[in-house]
Amino acid sequence: xxxxxxxxxxxxxxxxxxxxxxxxxxxxxxxxxxxxxxxxxxxxxxxxxxxxxxxxxxxxxxxxxxxxxxxxxxxxxxxxxxxxxx
Length: 86
Ligand SMILES: [Zn+2]
Prior knowledge:
single chain; alpha+beta; Ubiquitin-like (UB roll); 4 strands
């Protein structure tokens, strides 16, 4: 028997989270909403094993963890702002 096992991380940019000052680097900018999925590749079949939600500083790349609810709410807010709707 011969098994192919591997790990792979995918990152999805889901839009802007908000305009903040970073507490680490002091840069002011639009933080990005990132959904990171860790996949286990088993016999060419990707199985999602872990999903992380966080926002990321555009300056230093520092991240702040979010819950799934917070993340989805922030994505909705971002969409509304981008579309110019309230
Ligand atoms: Zn920063």
